[in-house]
Amino acid sequence: MLHKEEIETKQVYENKIYNNDILSLSIGNKSIDVGEPVIDLKTKSILKISFDQLNDQINNLQYEIIHCNLYWEESDLLEMEYIEGYKVNYIDNVSKSFGTLNPYVHYEFNIPNENIKLTKSGNYIIRLFDEYEPETSLATIKFYVTENIMDVKFNVLETTNFEQ
Predict the structure, then answer these.
(1) Residues 6 or more apart from 130 whose CB is under 8 A from it?
(2) Edge-to-edge strand order for the sheet containing 47-54?
(3) What residues pair up with 141 in beta bridges, in sequence order?
(4) Which of 117, 87, 97 is nearest to 24 (CA)?
(5) SS3 state of residue 6
């Protein structure tokens, strides 16, 4: 007989918007906006995340950083093993639209920032949610953290065996 813990499966995270009011979701390196969203621990690179919410009111939106395993499920690491700072933070760079047909609020934040620093390489998820409904995700976004922990040195030699 299987126990309840053995039957439960972990949530698999993906790049997904769960709320129809969230538009223009973007993630990219702050210096270059193309390519995969990657933070390199050695170069102190920064990711910029921005999106719009169709609304005329500024909401208290937050983001959570989740370390994932190879299959994009939450890893078994403790928060203090991969993060310095707070796992959950408010999005405080907010601006309302002006003179538009459809009112919206623009939200923007960077990772890392003064509240959060990542200390371990791997797969990560940013989960966006409203402060008053923390169990309901507005969106989830994948990004990667890398670190160069090994140097490879090699020499190329000319062959004297022409048959090779």
Answers:
(1) 59, 60, 61, 62, 136, 138
(2) 22-29, 47-54, 104-111, 93-96
(3) 126
(4) 97
(5) helix
